[in-house]
Amino acid sequence: EVEFILHDFLVSHNNSIISKETALKTLHTLKDMPIVGKYYPVTYGGDDALGSHEVYLDKDRQTGESIIGLDTVPIGVFTEDAYITTIKDENGEDKEVVAGKGILWASRFPNVVGLLKEWNENGIDIVSSLEILYDSYLFKDGVEEILSYVYEGHCILNSEERGDHQKVYPAYDVSKITKLVAQAVNQENIDKQLN
């Protein structure tokens, strides 16, 4: 089981903002959306790590036109609608945020879950980042206000410098895992389930 803070209602590091009123119309779109990541295995002389959204320029298979691609894979899924909750900010003040609950597929991705458990046990904030689709927005004073959107997924980011992999910072400082209930992966039981 995993729980994330997805975003708050302040201007992000991407110079965009989602109001509480807009978010309230969209909370139901989180359920069944993927939790994604890009895993980099242990290499000689380095450590395993996660990446980012892994955005790249691709070509449409039929038209040949340029399209945006993401080189991440689903490692879990959100099991409920998003919801608004209150946390304490760095000054001890109440702050409203959007959060969501899901599950990670530990039997399919034991190395990813193992890395997340290591970070969690070492007190490292496991940061993450929104993936949304939006079609209505307004620019004002250099800030993009998103007026209509749906959740497309949520990406777990590399949360510390590891080997040749730099830490990846989220667009929303609050975006991170807040609860990780990781069950021990028993290879013998997994092998029995697969046979």
Nearest-angstrom radius of gyration?
A: 18 Å
**Number of helical stretches of at least 4 residues:** 3
Helical content class:
10-25%
Task: Give a short account of the largest sheet.
Answer: 9 strands, mixed
Secondary structural class: mainly beta
Q: Secondary-structure element order, as H and E? A: EEHEEEEEEEEHEEEH
How much of the sequence lies in strands comes to: 35-45%
Oligomer: single chain
Description:
By secondary structure, this protein is mainly β. It contains three helices and 13 strands. The chain has helices at 20-24, 110-121, 187-194, and strands at residues 2-8, 16-18, 34-37, 39-40, 49-50, 55-59, 66-70, 73-78, 83-88, 94-104, 128-140, 143-156, 176-180. The strands form three sheets. Strands 1, 2, 3, 8, 9, 10, 11, 12 and 13 form a nine-stranded mixed beta sheet that branches. The two termini are 25 Å apart.
Question: Could you provide a short overview of the structure?
Answer:
With about 200 residues, the chain is mostly beta strands. The protein has helices spanning about 20-25, 110-120, 185-195, and strands spanning about 1-10, 15-20, 35, 40, 50, 55-60, 65-70, 75-80, 85-90, 95-105, 130-140, 145-155, 175-180.
